[in-house]
Design goal:
globular; 18 helices; mainly alpha
Length: 382
């Protein structure tokens, strides 16, 4: 197979697109239960709060897997690792589709977490090894566009499929996508021997910097606010707003489209005003979640606020990763590992704590809690 320097631009960009599709499959597998939470809970006879563990568990595992997988496989060919991790995702989605008990479902979510932590940490920084230097920025943007696309296409499409043919069918479709991506990784990526080995010392040095501390605090608060609330947006739209499943899919689609707009808008602003971009995202998420319990009883109010929410959250991954990279421009892979681990750990904590609030009080109460946390983030990062 040709090296990255002899490959044609077309093949190189197909490799970049394959990485994007891999992260798209991973992100969609991770957040798919958001749109299917009520159906999954009803099938296994558990509450919405307990079903929320299907969201929390992958994040917990991913937070551990990001540094563990990256460090223990630091000297292995990166293409080999990406293929192995995509195979794990394939198994996870099939296992979810055929799960006979809630425990089996949770095992499948553990495997999703392993894939998230490893694939994202390894694959997100490979753009510079696949395309010419002048195109690295564009290639990186293409790879990370998978995050909002997962919300735009993955969750609404999965929810629609689940409504038509059952939630298990949605996971089977994702398994088929993982198989296609696995084949594409084998065919389109060149050999990628270890290039810049990430060591435990590099991670520890990164964690000691002041910039990393600020990035960790801001990421912790905003991701806690978002996933503590958004995990339970489907029960809110069904029980409070009174929407039918098909209408919920349409609202989530509108949310996702706004997320793509927010992703590219934040990408433009973060280069010159990174702090203002991050604070703006926090303020908009706070406004949307605090107003939903009052204005979300009507369909129009719920749609408008979900669009604002999507626009704001679309910029969060861009702002968060940019803050970590700025803290360690000399060690991009280490920065990506810390970003992935912190993001996923807080993702899990938010989904778990949100479930406790939903079960103890109501889905509206968790929205208010999330809005207050987002306000704290905006105030602390100013």
């Amino acid at each position: 197979m040709p090296t990255t320097t002899t490959r044609s631009p077309l093949v190189s960009w197909l490799g970049v697109t394959t990485l994007m599709l891999g992260i798209f499959a991973i992100v969609t597998s991770e957040i798919l239960p958001i749109g299917l939470l009520s159906a999954i809970g009803a099938d296994f006879g558990v509450s919405d709060g307990v079903a929320g563990l299907t969201m929390a568990l992958p994040g917990i595992v991913a937070a551990v897997a990001a540094p563990t997988v990256t460090l223990t496989t630091a000297r292995l060919d990166r293409r080999l690792m990406l293929c192995a991790l995509m195979a794990v995702l394939l198994v996870a989605d099939v296992l979810a589709a055929v799960a006979t008990s809630y425990w089996v479902m949770l095992i499948s979510r553990v495997l999703v977490g392993v894939t998230i932590g490893g694939f994202w940490s390894i694959g997100a920084g490979l753009a510079g090894r696949l395309v010419a230097p002048r195109a690295v920025g564009a290639a990186t943007a293409v790879i990370f566009s998978a995050v909002p696309l997962g919300s735009v296409l993955g969750v609404p499409a999965g929810t629609f499929i689940g409504d038509l043919a059952g939630w298990r069918t949605a996971f089977l479709v994702l398994a088929a996508l993982a198989l296609v991506v696995l084949a594409a990784l084998v065919m389109l990526l060149p050999p990628l021997p270890a290039h810049q080995v990430t060591s435990p010392r590099a991670l520890l040095d990164l964690l000691r910097t002041r910039g990393t501390g600020r990035a960790l605090l801001a990421t912790f608060l905003i991701v806690l606010a978002h996933f503590g609330t958004y995990t339970y947006v489907t029960p809110f739209l069904e029980d409070v707003t009174g929407l039918r499943p098909a209408a919920v899919s349409a609202v989530l689609l509108a949310y996702g489209i706004a997320g793509i707009a927010g992703n590219f808008l934040a990408g433009r602003v973060v280069a010159t005003r990174p702090r203002a971009a991050f604070v703006t995202c926090g303020c908009l998420i706070a406004a949307a979640t605090l107003l939903l319990p009052w204005a979300g009883g009507a369909a129009v109010g719920a749609v408008v606020l979900l669009v604002v929410w999507g626009l704001a959250y679309g910029g969060v991954p861009v702002c968060s990763q940019a803050s970590f990279i700025a803290a360690a421009p000399h060690a991009p892979e280490a920065a990506t590992v810390v970003f992935t681990a912190s993001f996923q750990a807080t993702f899990a904590l938010g989904a778990f704590l949100g479930g406790r609030v939903v079960d103890a009080f109501s889905v509206s109460a968790v929205l208010i809690c999330g809005g207050l946390i987002a306000l704290v983030m905006a105030a602390a990062y100013r």
